[in-house]
Amino acid sequence: EGRLWGGRFAGGSADALTELSRSTHFDWRLARHDLAGSRAHARVLAGAGLLTTDQLAGMLAALDDLEADVVSGAFGPLPSDEDVHGALERGLLERAGDDLGGRLRAGRSRNDQIATLVRAWAREELRVVAGLLLDLVDALADQAASHPDAPMPGRTHLQHAQPVLLAHHLLAHAWPLLRDVDRLRDWDARAARSPYGSGALAGSSLGLDPAAVAAELGFDGPVENSLDGTAARDVVAEACFVLAMAGVDLSRLAEEVVLWATKEFSFVELDDAYSTGSSIMPQKKNPDVAELARGKAGRLVGDLTGLLTTLKGLPLAYNRDLQEDKEPLFDAVDTLQVLLPAVTGMVATLRFRTGRMAELAPQGFSLATDVADWLVREGVPFREAHEVAGACVRRCEERGVELVDLTDADLAGISPRLSPAVRDVLTVEGSIASRDGAGGTAPVRVAEQLAAARSRSGGL
Ligand code: ARG
């Protein structure tokens, strides 16, 4: 029976407790990490003289044998197993016998074990997520590189604001993702401390070497405090935050794709492979990947807030509530590992209607700031320049024309400061090229930016 306690209990557990307590349906995915921890633990038991050389060899052989059966699926949890640790101890006893197998648990607790396993698992999986985020950065960068000069309407408040390069806009979605990757790397440095050796809460009395276990499991070292090692889950919550942040970043990109794919915008055409149809409306082509990205962001935020709510107010040290850390983390990782390849494929296969975007880029008086900037270069105070440019917009609205259509007489009538030469700046290309300060949308700056983004995304 995969229960790791019972000596002081006269009777068995109520079925309702067993049902409630069982965690194998989600923590079984930690089995390989538990076995790795067991091998490291066996070695430090031997180092402390608690296993002979022969016993250590027998233990390691039994653990290898068990791992092979776990990997092949020949060994798995039974309904009577409480958690991954209990199931694997049962498997060990079956292979090594009660006398040898029963020695492994000395000096460790499920509390330090589980805290270690969840970190080890997350470190491995978040590296995968970081790679998937970089794939999306590459897809955005490739699209930017394919459209080096295409203009589009830049927006604030979703209203036309100033023209920008499509490449600039696409890269604006890449930078947050690169920061998410930075956050994952930075998180890893904090996650790289092993709680093994903390025992249940107070540390171990058996002369074990937590640094050796940490090193064998790929950690930078053991935790500094055994209470903290077993009770803290900020590392898990922080992982959930970064995953939720990535989800929110994806949802903002996704919302734009949804808008761009509408008839009204008509900025993009989705590839057939990344869009769906309607069961009743034959004409429909829906941006479901983008909508699911938007929707999954809510789920990722839920994973984070659920975990933070679990942690709030928990006294030190271990409490069983902490078992609830795993499903939100697993869900967040699973969600992004499924979502990211789909979003990357959608972005890589988007076809941009650059003609349509260019046509709309100067509309909505998006060059009014260029009029004001021209006046400033002519020596007009900006406050007055803003007024004059605003008056130009008003005149255009009255006449139902765009800024570039104002006649010489219109310009002279609005302000003596205006001359026909102002029309030279009233082009999308001129406006974009003029914004050549650091980080601006001018083609030279965007080319530099693209190179910088590419060098940041190269190699984990
Ligand atoms: N399954 C538990 C968890 O996920 C670990 C076991 C600790 N149980 C206990 N009664 N101390 O956190």
From TrEMBL:
Residues 15-302 form the Fumarate lyase N-terminal domain. Gene3D superfamilies: Fumarase/aspartase (C-terminal domain), Fumarase/aspartase (Central domain), Fumarase/aspartase (N-terminal domain). InterPro entries: Arg_succ_lyase_C, Argininosuccinate_lyase, Fumarase/histidase_N, Fumarate_lyase_CS, Fumarate_lyase_fam, Fumarate_lyase_N, L-Aspartase-like. Residues 365-433 form the Argininosuccinate lyase C-terminal domain. It catalyses: 2-(N(omega)-L-arginino)succinate = fumarate + L-arginine. Transmembrane segments: none annotated. It is found in: Cytoplasm. SUPFAM superfamilies: L-aspartase-like (SSF48557). One of its GO terms (molecular function) is argininosuccinate lyase activity. It is an enzyme of class 4 (lyase). Belongs to the lyase 1 family. Argininosuccinate lyase subfamily. This is Argininosuccinate lyase. It comes from Pseudokineococcus basanitobsidens.
